[in-house]
């Protein structure tokens, strides 16, 4: 167990040493395009990040159509209903 903990610490330290902060819209688009293997998706990711900011949430859903689109939802959104209908006031 101690060996695993030490290895995790070494791995995290190495990742921190070689990591690079990504902040510009172009850099975010590059990372998104590489991750998705699609330049258009990279642009969508960059636009979504720009609109929601660092504290926003990005949700990706499968579409029934052929078009890729970006939709911004303001406020709070719940992906599940209430545990009980009595909680709704």
UniProtKB/TrEMBL annotation:
Superkingdom: Bacteria
GO term, biological process aspect, one: protein refolding
Keyword Transport: no
Signal peptide interval: none
One MF annotation (Gene Ontology) recorded for this entry: ATP-dependent protein folding chaperone
Stored Gene3D superfamilies: TCP-1-like chaperonin intermediate domain
Keyword Iron in record: no
Keyword annotations: Chaperone, Stress response
Family membership noted in the UniProt record: Belongs to the chaperonin (HSP60) family.
Name of this protein: Heat shock protein 60
Organism: Macrococcoides caseolyticum
Lineage start: Bacteria, Bacillati, Bacillota, Bacilli, Bacillales
Primary gene name: hsp60
